[in-house]
Amino acid sequence: MTTEAVKNALRRQEIELPSWAFGNSGTRFKVFPQPGVPRSPEEKLADAAVVHKLTGVAPSVALHIPWDKVDDYAKLAAYAKEQGVRLGAINSNVFQDNDYMLGSVTNPDPRVRRKATDHLLECVDIMDATGSRDLKLWFSDGTNYPGQDDIRDRQDRLAEALKEVYDRLGDDQRMLLEYKLFEPAFYTTDVPDWGTSYAHCLELGPKATVCIDTGHHAPGTNIEFIVAFLLRVGKLGAFDFNSRFYADDDLMVGAADPFQLFRIMNEIIRADALDPDRGIAFMLDQCHNIEPKIPAIIRSVMNVQEATAKALLVDRDALREAQQEGDVLGANAALMDAYNTDVRPLLADLRSEQGLDPNPIAAYQRSGYFEQIAHDRADGQQAGWGA
Amino acid sequence: MTTEAVKNALRRQEIELPSWAFGNSGTRFKVFPQPGVPRSPEEKLADAAVVHKLTGVAPSVALHIPWDKVDDYAKLAAYAKEQGVRLGAINSNVFQDNDYMLGSVTNPDPRVRRKATDHLLECVDIMDATGSRDLKLWFSDGTNYPGQDDIRDRQDRLAEALKEVYDRLGDDQRMLLEYKLFEPAFYTTDVPDWGTSYAHCLELGPKATVCIDTGHHAPGTNIEFIVAFLLRVGKLGAFDFNSRFYADDDLMVGAADPFQLFRIMNEIIRADALDPDRGIAFMLDQCHNIEPKIPAIIRSVMNVQEATAKALLVDRDALREAQQEGDVLGANAALMDAYNTDVRPLLADLRSEQGLDPNPIAAYQRSGYFEQIAHDRADGQQAGWGA
Amino acid sequence: MTTEAVKNALRRQEIELPSWAFGNSGTRFKVFPQPGVPRSPEEKLADAAVVHKLTGVAPSVALHIPWDKVDDYAKLAAYAKEQGVRLGAINSNVFQDNDYMLGSVTNPDPRVRRKATDHLLECVDIMDATGSRDLKLWFSDGTNYPGQDDIRDRQDRLAEALKEVYDRLGDDQRMLLEYKLFEPAFYTTDVPDWGTSYAHCLELGPKATVCIDTGHHAPGTNIEFIVAFLLRVGKLGAFDFNSRFYADDDLMVGAADPFQLFRIMNEIIRADALDPDRGIAFMLDQCHNIEPKIPAIIRSVMNVQEATAKALLVDRDALREAQQEGDVLGANAALMDAYNTDVRPLLADLRSEQGLDPNPIAAYQRSGYFEQIAHDRADGQQAGWGA
Amino acid sequence: MTTEAVKNALRRQEIELPSWAFGNSGTRFKVFPQPGVPRSPEEKLADAAVVHKLTGVAPSVALHIPWDKVDDYAKLAAYAKEQGVRLGAINSNVFQDNDYMLGSVTNPDPRVRRKATDHLLECVDIMDATGSRDLKLWFSDGTNYPGQDDIRDRQDRLAEALKEVYDRLGDDQRMLLEYKLFEPAFYTTDVPDWGTSYAHCLELGPKATVCIDTGHHAPGTNIEFIVAFLLRVGKLGAFDFNSRFYADDDLMVGAADPFQLFRIMNEIIRADALDPDRGIAFMLDQCHNIEPKIPAIIRSVMNVQEATAKALLVDRDALREAQQEGDVLGANAALMDAYNTDVRPLLADLRSEQGLDPNPIAAYQRSGYFEQIAHDRADGQQAGWGA
């Protein structure tokens, strides 16, 4: 691919920001508050808009209900537009009510299941108001002890709730079903792996697709294999990007294993699935427990861009030829050549061409935005996971 | 369940033995030969017959082609019958020919793919001759290095080969598709997890089902969840039983984590899927690198029996009631009560009622069989993985 | 060992309860409050005393500072005595102050290090007041991102702080240094494994020993090996018992892998290290996020007792003889025979002989204690990790 | 560091090649033979010399006894010199004799222990003849089943053997004690982790140091932490470099996680421990199961060079300043800036300055060496692990 073709592809790339990444977060041991943290959905959108303004690649913001609950979603959407961004996926939350201690849609108690499903349906109502295409479903449902509940019954309950929500979706709406190996459930999780998510999506129909959170796998899982597999069968709907060294899903995407991120993006490029028209949502879903939120998100966006640029630079003809010939080292070298390229100059050029500062982090630091919000938001209740 | 009902269920249980477990095996570092190891398929059958004679629960023997290749399979089946056992699943082997260095049915070279598929078709021919119901497919196919081959193309090639073999199956024949996280492939494996196997089986049709090898998962994978899930969707075809502490799949089933084996059998009993009529094959697939083969296999069979007996003893009414009430500790206790029960007396009784020695290991040691084979089989080429 | 000898050993067993296990706990996603949860250190002691009264084996209670901070520790000790228990290890907490975001004793900022070390010294003051022997140190210190801080400098800072605290210990006081692979730090942890803890303890001197938390290891780690190794070199000081299927350390000890707990206790018995005089502290350190606290703790205590009883029942002569002869299956069988024994009748007998109810869980449920505390403690602030 | 300083450091770098990497290797399933594979220690040395000639950085070759057993080691050393390389570490092999089925120096049978220790002593004799400084010890010793042998007794036996060998070492000789989590032992390994190796080395004395094989850890282990820790206490003796995605240790170093290799080399540079005078041996220890041996080794050497160059490029002042200020993102960025640099032009320059071809792989392919050995070595017995 020529440099110009690479740049053209990068110009069309879109990365969705999660509203909650701008709020305080932490571990079960401690949430460390940070200066300047937003106190409202509007302030989160304002911060996200800064990221988009500096990077040019993050035009939409995912909401989390009820963390981002407002009275008037149309007004919120208008506010977003004013800031230069749009509202993205709606994320449901059925894990922070006392009723959900033993599960939400898979709870043994039908009353709790009803309540949980009603929340999901409410999220579709919100999508109608915001014009969001995607409903992202993550269920913390599961059990902590062998015997605690019936694994199979819980699948039946899950299927029933998913069906009801699926049937409620409009023509242009989709359901993204996320999976996670464990946490907060410590023995079984009701959607623990891509196979479970895929099987349910297949049963539901074309509007249901799998969401891959890069931090939600067992040690050693080959994520790019899953990406390639789901692309092949047309069931990859979205990514939740983040990274990790152990079992958490908190770190900035690309921070723990940049080579893995490159391999994932390589499968996307291989399948020509980068363009927004292809319907795959590239979202961040990460925490910034100890680092400042906004520059951490800028850095994350840049990490995805760099991995994408490298993947675009792979000499596909050389790669395919070496693969066909069984030239193990040659094929590996074709991939590594792209990975080992320093794409930062190319991205700096691209930004300059787009009228952006070639160095978004430096531009942010010079902007005075942080000092401003640290001052303006000194009072009030900072947003956080429990907000 | 009454003790009598438990015994009745256990009386109908069947565990299939792998012919190769009687041969020499080892690690990549060393194969330690053992005295008395069989030199032919017939001697493997003779050893397996001893296990069945002593335990009463292992009436069939799986073959591995070409390790168990003979000129006349009908004659081999007759010999098995004479010994008191029958021939079971046919296991294909597309990993030990120099041509398969870069894969068998997923090899980039169409000539190698043809050769591999032809071997699979030959296995179905053998099934016709032996009367075997099950064709077990394990593919070592995969890649060692990023870029080495195209992940998605390999899935296309896999699907094509599976389809050709599937179409060749007779009305009473089935295909069991095994998955494995890694080894011998060290970067991608073409059928790495249950989701991949399930997706292919679903596409193929009702004669294709998933085979769960208990040693083939990423660390932390909840195997009983997979069992429950596949039982729910009617796609569980077989088990390859063994156990492990790390990434291997070599140890005697139940040796590393007897509680896990119990939880697996508990899902089988929960779904009323123990009876051979239900169509699930319970097979051993393990190595005995440093321990004597025959008593190790007897022990393995007994471990499965004990786990089954415990699972049968679970008070299902108490369990379900506690689950429905959200009584976490009560439900867990209902399961643990069964697990903590010493079922060895019950099994000893059962064996006595069946005219067997209550202690199969002791009976084997008294039998003089080992001394006999150690003497008789002193010459010749011992069977092994590479045989 | 005769049944009587087993019972005698069990009569002398002591398991220490953590005060914090009686309070509310949870995951980063949600803390589910439970009825009857204590509102003060005294109420935690009262609950712990109930566990001891019912099991006869849990005579001491570990405190966590500042969660259990009181004005008068002598008075608290007297209250404990009145309830029938005594105060045990003092656990420091240098992870819940905003200053500790980048570490406590290993923080790059000397002011924060001073503050953290002062807290540890204060804990020794408290030990003087309570008469506690053990100071348990767990450091959440570490980094989240490569480069964030200098790994080696942090070891220097750690060594310096440990030295200062060590020198402050009285003649009858000890330091227990706990290790943990990760969480809350997600890239490096300053005391991540037993080797690091051991190396520091060795440098410090005889009053410093390693504390093994059974939930703090990388996947696949053989914990009983570490137990055996540390016993051999005289550096095992304590256990923090809990269990897990994944990377957490929350579940009731023995719940996830009862066979592992047995193997750990088997090394203790092998080294004759069960008796309190041998100086090893057997402590619980677990959460009860979704199950009622008191019966969960009773169950945990019973799980340790059962594993201990099984380990005591191992026929050591038969085991050793088989080991010496290289009889792999015989040696394994000697161990498994003990594990497969149902020791619940023996423990019920022992309790009866001790004037206890043979079934502590049932006795607790009949006692009305839960109903009482659920009623009495309806108001006020429930204790929790953040309390 | 200036470019010139970086180049100067790289000019002094030395990477040791393992003779066995040039021979055939494989998995337990299959060894795929390759054309041109050496048939003798001399041919292995000739191949290694080619790697050194092309890269300029691999002047020594480690031997494996008995795989590289010859009658006259002085003559072999002279042959090596003639080829342009020298003999390096002597690797013992106590895992491929039938006697070692249940262990070598930790075997319950004193006769086997004697035999194993005698082999180790013989290796020191060979070192005397070859002038090698390092004795590398890897013990496959361990057990497969709980109870199989006494964990603690095996440590006693290990300590005894190590002591005898240590006492035999000459003034300029060292012992490198390698550790490995598992394989071929599947339950306990007698030297499973760095802590065990470190503890034994500490007891032995200054001539005993730890060897880190990058493929021998539990999932999630932070290897650079171990590097930093051992450097701090002066007990890091050597690396065995390779890489892996799962539990194997077979792939080319840097192939699976190039960022990890960089972080490891970063700790080396941080401690100024790259120079050969510092006494740390940087050795490859890997297999090339499906890729051609010589170019795979050239590639591995280049991967280490590239990681080293990047580590040398880290702006240490900027890094330290950001660390001291608690600037998480700034410190991480300082590290990543170096990692993201494309150092291939710098290394190509360096090679040109050294009179080498800037592209060693291309130079090898043009050289005709492979065609030559494929032709010349068509007959005879190819070297392999079992040779």
UniProtKB/TrEMBL annotation, chains A, B, C, D:
User: Tell me, what's a Pfam family for it?
Assistant: AP_endonuc_2
Query: Quick check: keyword Thylakoid in the entry?
Result: no
One of its GO biological process terms is: rhamnose catabolic process
**Could you give a GO molecular-function term held by this entry?**
L-rhamnose isomerase activity
Metal-binding recorded as keyword: yes
Keywords in alphabetical order: Isomerase, Manganese, Metal-binding
Task: Give every Xylose isomerase-like TIM barrel domain span.
Answer: 71-247
Superkingdom field: Bacteria
Supply the InterPro entries for this chain. L-rhamnose_isomerase, Rhamnose_iso-rel, Xyl_isomerase-like_sf, Xyl_isomerase-like_TIM-brl
The protein in question is named L-rhamnose isomerase/sugar isomerase
The organism of origin for this protein:
Kribbella caucasensis
